[in-house]
């Protein structure tokens, strides 16, 4: 991995060239977008179930899953995307890493909110 001079240009326009850079950026976007979505879901769950004897603890499980899922499947899928980019010799713009990372959160949310899974 080569070190880059961060003062030479805007960090949003400097392409990611190594596997580690690509994987790490995609993974971080997937992790933080998943945590963001699960915190919102946990807040809604807590507001709805705050009077319930045991239901008020379910938001903790939702937030824990929001961290564990990207730490397991997010690592693997981010590595797969970074491997394809690196093996093909493409440089990844940081904006694409954002799209790939947030996409790893948006697709499961879309599948969970629709009835696609019930048709399988």
UniProtKB/TrEMBL annotation:
Signal peptide: none annotated. It holds the Pfam family Tmemb_170. It comes from the Eukaryota. The keyword Transmembrane helix applies. It is found in: Membrane. It is a multi-pass membrane protein. Its main location: membrane. The chain crosses the membrane at residues 22-49, 61-85, 97-118. Keywords: Membrane, Transmembrane, Transmembrane helix. GO terms for cellular component: membrane. Coiled coil: none annotated. Belongs to the TMEM170 family. This is Transmembrane protein 170A.
